[in-house]
Amino acid sequence: MADDSKRFTIGTIGSYAAVGDSFTEGVGDPGPAGAFVGWADRLAVLLSDRLHTAHPAAESAGDFAADFRYANLAVRGRLLDQIVEEQVPRAKELAPDLVSFCAGGNDILRPGSDPDDIAARYEAAVADLTASVGTVLVCTGFDTRGVPVLRHLRGKIATYTAHVRAIADRHGCPVLDLWSLRSVQDRRAWSEDRLHLSADGHTRVALRAAQVLGLPLATDPDQPWPEEGHRSAAEVRRDNIHWAREHLVPWIGRRLRGESSGDHVHPKRPDLLPLP
Description:
Elements: E1 15-20, H1 22-25, H2 38-54, H3 56-60, E2 69-72, H4 80-86, H5 88-94, E3 98-102, H6 105-109, H7 115-130, E4 135-139, H8 154-171, E5 175-176, H9 199-212, H10 233-257, E6 269-274
Helix pairs in contact: 2-9, 7-8
């Protein structure tokens, strides 16, 4: 187990670096100038607000106005080994109080991939990170029972999720358990491509991450969605045809060509900087 003396105290997280793939980059949650926002950016805002609230005297004096710093190293399409090679060393160099490490999802999607092997490599990276930074927040997979294309991978994702929870236990890491987050099983939590979260979905995940870290919340990340109007079979069929043409076929094409959506993409926040 990790040394308990390294565990964070709520209100003292002054820096945060996010490591991962499209999920952590924020794909599906559009921001200004073609960039993405995403759950990690939203969590950074919550952590910054909490830091300032925990130190009102310093805040009023202006000492904490730019104290909280945040980096997002995640790049869409990255496999676990790429994340470990490209992002983990940078996260260790930055040495923030908190690192979120969400990786392996793209590996699981590959035909013939072995969740046991992926988990072994994932644990090596977690061990490396926990030896260098204050706290490492790890992420499980989503329950994909209702997600087209991905529902047939549910067993592999469940196996990997069990590994992640065991790894967290062994290394003393808090767990962002996405499998148990029921609110993201609603279709409105997912973007039009059905592979990435929507802005609302990213918001739910950010709230769950804040909850895991012990931040007080005014909103329950698992609160029920508003009632949705009935959709006819014809509407569902029309949506499915549009999705297949606009998203599924291009996704399959990239895989057949050996291309990644993250080719030529760089981290959006490679340095620990104050929030705007």
